[in-house]
Amino acid sequence: MTVTAFTPNARNHAGLGALASRVVHANDMEWEPIKYPGCQVKTLMVDPKSGLLTVLLKMEPGALLPDHEHALMEQTYMIEGRLVDTEGPEKGLEVGPGEFVYRPAGSRHSAYTPEGGLMLAIFQVPNKFFEKDGGIVDLVGQDWQKKWGHVVG
Predict the structure, then answer these.
(1) Which of 22, 38, 64, 99 could pair covalently with 112 via S-S, beta carbons 3.0-4.6 A apart?
(2) Greatest CA span in the chain, whole angstroms?
(3) Are the C-beta atoms of residues 61 and 118 closer than 8 Å to each other?
(4) What is the CATH class of 24-152?
(5) Given phi > 0 = left and psi -120 to 50 = alpha, else beta, which region is 92?
(6) Cβ–Cβ under 8 Å, residues 16 and 33
(7) Of 72, 1, 13, 2, which Cα lies nearest the Cα of 43?
(8) Per DSSP, what are the bridge partners of residue 109?
């Protein structure tokens, strides 16, 4: 059995068997900036083959996740702060601490955190972010189709 999911920089995972549980010490991980100012992640698990991605996402006050589409299902549990839709069919929708939202494949919006936020986000495949120049990238700015297109065909 080949394991394709992993946690970047998880030293305690070295040498684990294919069926071993992977404990992630998130409090010991560094926050890593993503493409969008004021937004950082701790990647808890990524599977490049299937597209599955689980992150802790921290957004500073006023930070924005611009126009993006959920290529497949996204699940978000808010730990701190509020995530507010700024554009899209549900403009004004707010999700606060202790609330959970899931967004179906094909849904599209922009969202920001007025006073900052911390959330657990689980993606069946990372979101497609639409650039002003027509490009489509993932949350770290890589060409979405090249990196994730194999998942949804």
Answers:
(1) 64
(2) 47
(3) no
(4) mainly beta
(5) left
(6) no
(7) 13
(8) 68
